[in-house]
Design a protein that fits this description.
By secondary structure, the protein is mainly alpha-helical. It has three helices and no strands.
Length: 68
Amino acid sequence: MNNNSNNSSGVSCTGFFVVLLGVAFIIMKIVGVIEWSWVWVLAPIWIYAALVLFILVIGLIIAFWKRK
């Protein structure tokens, strides 16, 4: 039995909430509710992307290191 379906649904759920939070911040910025710079308005999206990329790079480094 393979339990990969449970793991992938957790990642997609997290991604959904990150995008939802990002959209909420963008709407609040456009409407004028918040006066943050665009860097911080888009922070949930770029921080999540950077974290996923970092984990991917670490995983690739470990995989190549174990091959030797």
